[in-house]
């Protein structure tokens, strides 16, 4: 297997230099567990990590990889695709829930009971489809995040953009204030959305 063969090469080079996994991990800007996963053949380094590893040992990436370069590049691209689809599916699911609540509020007084039940059935089917799509990609993204040690939104976005692990990030509002506090902003969005929908429902009932 590519993972095992590359892991054995990394371990041999590390032991030849006489450094521990922890010291090596610090040099290539990853966690010690990540190095252990590489050497045991459980995961593959991404492209940026490969450059750091090769540079640390004073060899080229081609010398480190032999014939495995294209597969690793393809697997990294697949991992990024999975994370992007997970994000898209999550946005679609959230929008579907908001759309469903808005439509349900508007038709609650405008349609007859039978018509309302028909509309709600259609909305339920849409919700199930969006939910299924989201959870499928969420499961796949969870595996990618575990394999790549991506523990927060900031690391996920940096990986998708192809940034080198540990590299300095852009000094923008998005990177300084949104991604690091993403759980807070996401919770705030949900609270505001729910409050707006409750107000809309109350208004339609009053009218």
- Mean pLDDT, rounded to whole units? 82
Helix percentage: over 70%
Distance between the termini: 67 Å
Low-confidence stretches: none
Strand tally is 0
**What's the number of helices?**
10
CA gyration radius, whole angstroms: 24 Å
Global morphology:
elongated
**Share in β-strands:** under 5%
**Main sheet record:** none
SSE order in H/E notation?
HHHHHHHHHH
Protein model, in words:
The structure is a single chain. Helix 2 crosses helix 3, helix 6 packs antiparallel against helix 7 and helix 6 (69-110) runs parallel beside helix 10 (182-206). The model has no long low-confidence stretch (mean pLDDT 82). The termini are far apart. This protein has 10 helices and no strands. The protein has helices spanning 2-17, 21-27, 32-39, 47-57, 61-65, 69-110, 113-148, 153-160, 173-178, 182-206. The protein is 79% helix and 0% strand. The chain is elongated, with a radius of gyration of 24 Å. With 207 residues, the protein is an all-alpha fold.
